[in-house]
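Subgroup meeting minutes
Present: P.N., E.W., G.H.
Scribe: E.W.

1. P.N. recapped why we're keeping a running log of single-chain structure predictions: easier to compare across weeks, and new members can see raw inputs and outputs side by side.
2. G.H. added today's entry (151 aa).
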Amino acid sequence: MAIVKRDEGKKVNANINVTPMCDVMLVLLIIFMVITPMLQNKVNVELAQTDNPTAMPDADHEDAVVVAVTRDSQIFLGQDKVSLADLGPKVADMLQNKTNKMVYFRADARAHYGTVMDAIDAVRTTGVEEVGLLTEQRQGRETPPPAAGGE
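Output recorded in log:
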């Protein structure tokens, strides 16, 4: 009876093949480079300055309904540009299944007042009762001025 000895262990290659890992990393890098600019959910507007330091943390949520009016009278719902006529129905669709029916407005400080009011009216005609106006706190003042008639 003969004993058969197999020498397959000598054929094992212990070198690490890094080519597939580099391919996967490059694909992930490209995906993140493409998606990262899309993650910004805001339209760039220069907000009006105010002395009142009240904050609205609910406006920072992902599912918050934010309407932005730019200085050239363009209206954005989230990041999508909409016309004034389509603003009301689209806001109503977004608020249909939500418990918080608050709509936040971000208007550029140099936006036309009439356009901002028309946008607010278009949202209010859909049944929205709560509207929040987002502003930035003025720099340089640490405490708000005292209330009129108070000590």
